[in-house]
Amino acid sequence: MILFRYFKSHSFQGEVESGTRRKVKRLLSFQRYCHASRLLRGLVPHTPGSLHLLDDDYLGQAAHMLSKVGTWNFDIFLFDRLTNGNSLVTLMCHLFNVCGLIHHFQLDMVKLHRFLGMVQEDYHSQNPYHNAVHAADVTQAMYCYLKEPKLAEQLSPLDVFLGLMAAAAHDVDHPGVNQPFLIKTRHHLASLYQNTSVLESHHWRSTVGMLRESGLLSHLPADISQDMEQQLGSLILATDISRQNEFLLTFREHLDNQDLDLQLASHRHFMLQIALKCADICNPCRVWELSRQWSERVCEEFYRQGDLERKFDLEISPLCNQQADSVPAIQIGFISYIVEPLFEEWHRFTEPSLLSQTMMGHLHKNKARWSCLRCAHTPSDVQAHSHADEPNPKGGGGEGENIP
Known about the structure:
- Residues 383-404 are annotated as: Disordered.
- The chain is mostly helical.
- Helices cover 61% and strands 0% of the residues.
- The longest helix is centred in the last third of the chain and has 24 residues, at 288-311.
């Protein structure tokens, strides 16, 4: 976990020395100050986790898994172990190849690997949830959604490129705390983005910086590369959970009116936004063995934030109090008010597909299992946890706020 040193402003009873304030700003900037500037480093160096250190047996198993990358029971945790922590780079290189994107966009493989290495490196491995494995998991889910017949028949190579890139980079440099935490600690990024989509804006701008630094799109005309950057931003910003109702209502209206025309670029882009939002919160739709691990990880990240808030006498954010908020209670509320409504509409959109039926089956079974686990608590525990099932108000800092 990032070691935060919280400083108290006037509103938090007192001031501290400017040196401490600068130290906090550095630690909360999410940048890796322990590394030199990438501009000085040049190519991302090989680390002990690089693929060239893996033996043939591990590489063979990883390659076998990649042959089934389009299946919903893909175990990203196992894949990350087989690739020695390089799941995101390995997965993206494979998908770009099988989707024909390297040839279509005439991408330089050295620049592509350099860019992906930057992205993977800028995910914080100490985060239990928002790390490179989560990014790889979302990317694999996004690939499955892009293969849905309703979408696959209409998507252009640019659509596929943007969808996979946005999935891989959607949480890059995530600090392991949510937006309300940044706002109440008066972090400079909250001021920079005016307390609106703070993390998502940072993820996007960081991605653009790495794209330009790696030169991945430098061979394309400037107007085209700039348009790609803007579309990436539109996709990543759509993962802001405070905009959940906005997208859900628009999606529902399109389905009710039957007016989605995927021959229109704007409608395809909207469906890419919806697909990315689904991929970002699809953990409850996975098989129980995988879903449970993700649930425990995200709650551990919540609890760490709560411990940090308690340490510095801040109000503990919703769902971040380990003494009051149980994992089953958090998950039941998340599924009921965030996941189910979105995936029910996705189910309608796919008419429904076999994948959608599989996901909904897992979702209902997992919710039932969490309900059983919640009932195993004592009556006093159940009463204490009951508030976790209440709908999360917009921007309220609940589970959605922690999963941008």
